Amino acid sequence: MSSGDVIAFLDSDDYWRKDKLRLQLERANASGNIRDFCVTCGHSLIGNDLPAFRPPETIGLEDILVHNIVGPTSNIMMSRSILDAVGLFDPVMPSCQDWELFIRIAQRVPILGVGEVLTFQDTDSSARISDNHKKVRDGHRAMYRRARATTDFRALPLAQRWQVRARQELALLRK
Fold first, then answer.
1. Which of 15, 63, 152, 154 has the fewest beta carbons under 10 Å from its own?
2. How is domain 6-174 classified at the CATH fold level?
3. What is the band of 41 on the pLDDT scale with cuts at 50, 70, 90?
């Protein structure tokens, strides 16, 4: 376990650009809240022709409830105080552990974005949870149930709650 005030994750099949940490710290400093923060960045899939993902400057809870626009865990840097406040990854989740953690973080602070590609994800790596379609579906279902049970979700206007639920159901059909 890390003993520093700032925590960043790097999956074994991912790579960082050498200035990733510096740019994310600069974004956190620019926000004015250096004590409690979470910053994501853009990422690109190695060996895939899909365009690179670049997050908006700020990601709110509603954005995360519908889609995991934060990206993979390797994109994230956060203050230890946020991780201490929300807790670690939930080992009970069959998949989507990162997405579920991002929801808990976004319930406390907006997630900040650096619009540059700073993380590269190797999609050819073996032993990826996302390759097990049953685990992915089960993880999505568990995550959606948890998300819909939050007071933040229930506080959304009815039309927006239905929109979120419809998008979630559509996503499950595609898995």
1. 154
2. Spore Coat Polysaccharide Biosynthesis Protein SpsA; Chain A (3.90.550)
3. very high
Which residues, in sequence order, are CB contacts of 80 under 8 Å at separation 6+?
2, 4, 5, 6, 7
Cα–Cα distance measured from residue 73 to residue 128, given in angstroms and rounded to the nearest whole number: 13
Radius of gyration of the chain (CA): 16
Q: What are 42-100's pLDDT values in tens digits?
A: 999 888 888 888 999 999 887 887 777 888 899 999 999 999 999 998 888 777 788 88
C-alpha span between 38 and 71 (Å, rounded): 13
Q: Of 13, 5, 36, whose CA–CA distance to 123 is shortest?
A: 13
For residue 25, is pLDDT > 80?
Answer: yes
